[in-house]
Amino acid sequence: MAHLDTREKLAILADAAKYDASCASSGTSKRSSVGSKGIGSTEGMGICHSYAPDGRCISLLKILLTNSCIFDCHYCINRRSSNVRRARFTVDEVVKLTLAFYRRNYIEGLFLSSGIIGTSDYTMDQLVRVAKTLREEHDFRGYIHLKTIPDADPELLEQAGLYADRLSINIELPTESGLAKLAPEKNGIRIRGAMTGLKTAIDDNKDARKHYRSAPKFAPAGQSTQMIVGADGADDSAIMGTAQSLYGRFQMRRVYYSAFSPIPDASAVLPLVSPPLIREHRLYQADWLMRFYGFGVGEVQDATDAGNLPLDIDPKTAWALKNRGQFPVDINRAPREMLLRVPGLGVKTVNAILRVRRQRALRLDDVGRLTRGIEKLRPWLIAADWRPVALAERGDLRATLVKPARAQLELFG
Ligand code: SF4
């Protein structure tokens, strides 16, 4: 590996970390002031935004310890056979960078991942050392998210949880067959085993802290994972099934969906084109339906056409169109779970409707004032002064609900 200074390493290892979507901010247009007047750039990598457990948006220094790796996962730019420039930080360099950025108020925490060097245990030990040094030697109180290596000794994962706020283990692909094809050195059983270990440790810690407030916290922001979308043949129905099992079995805080983007020097087994980014967006919407709107995985799967979520309408509208018999919903009488199924009604609006209707019957205008617009809601609602005339039976209803397509910007375009 050529000798590189810290700035060069930072350029390589911040760029290499951008493919991890676990804390990605969304795409925007390219602007840069390099070589011209002005200040700032939207293209730089290295600092990303994430959400703290209390909902605050925080900035994280997002880097890899190294982009060298002994594994050869086909979808990964850092894989062994990839022809990229390699770099490696020492533990001390990451600690110094984090503290320097923190003191300048550039960041509120660190997101650290790594390719596997030497052995899984050695790599995990290096990651733990960074977090341990920050916490114990520098009394660092900022947020730390560590990517963990499923094959590493469970003892190391336990140590990681004592220093990090959040731990994550990537499930990588939605199906075992996809994993076997695209990441043959990874093992789905071991990945799930490591997730089980983290869940147990998090649960045990919560229990211990109920009895002993002085018990040290273990990964208080829980665990999360990431699934690559579109690199294998898994459809949205399979992806949501896997997500549901990850939330149920391992109590994941978040499952991140990362649309596969073709990488330079890509492996021949990968598709030539990436899936449309709107697919990733629809999966996040379906994920929200399961987590916050009370939809079961079967209902989300029911919204798909031949296994995939429609791209031109959101999953809740797709589900409602397939279940027209359950509409229109009486805004003044329907239970909360049915109000949450009305396209265009969010959780906050539903809570407001429930509050207001205790005092008086809501009219259509009242609902309009609580939402961004009433047009989308008309076919699905009954209000004190409104009853749709079999609108839900209209053959052209779907066409009236489709918004004109807008081009979505690429995250790494
Ligand atoms: S183990 Fe991680 S870093 Fe290494 S090739 Fe696979 S995905 Fe990339």
Average of pLDDT: 88
Q: Which cofactor or ligand species appear?
A: iron/sulfur cluster
Q: What is the H/E string?
A: HEEHEHEHEHHEHEHHHEHHHEH
Write down the Rg. Answer: 24 Å
- Note the overall shape: globular
Ranges with pLDDT <50 over ≥5 residues?
A: 24-29
* Helix-residue proportion: 25-40%
Q: How can the largest sheet be summarized?
A: 7 strands, mixed
Total number of β-strand segments? 9
Count up the helices. 14
Structural class: alpha/beta
Q: How are the strands ordered across the major sheet? A: 1-2-3-4-5-6-7
User: In whole angstroms, how far apart are the ends?
Assistant: 29 Å
Strand content bin: 5-15%
Q: Characteristics of this structure?
A:
single chain; two-stranded parallel ribbon; 413 residues; binds iron/sulfur cluster; 10% strand; globular; alpha/beta; 14 helices; seven-stranded mixed beta sheet; 9 strands
Report on the architecture of this protein.
It is a single chain. The chain is α/β, with parallel strands linked by helices and 413 residues long. The chain has 14 helices and 9 strands. The chain has helices spanning 6-16, 91-103, 120-137, 154-163, 176-182, 188-211, 236-250, 277-292, 297-302, 315-322, 336-339, 347-356, 364-370, 397-401; strands at 47-51, 57-64, 109-113, 143-147, 166-168, 223-229, 254-259, 329-330, 381-382. α2 packs parallel to α3 and α3 runs parallel beside α4. The site of iron/sulfur cluster has 9 residues, from loops. Iron/sulfur cluster is lined by residues 69, 71, 73, 76, 78-79, 115-116, 183.
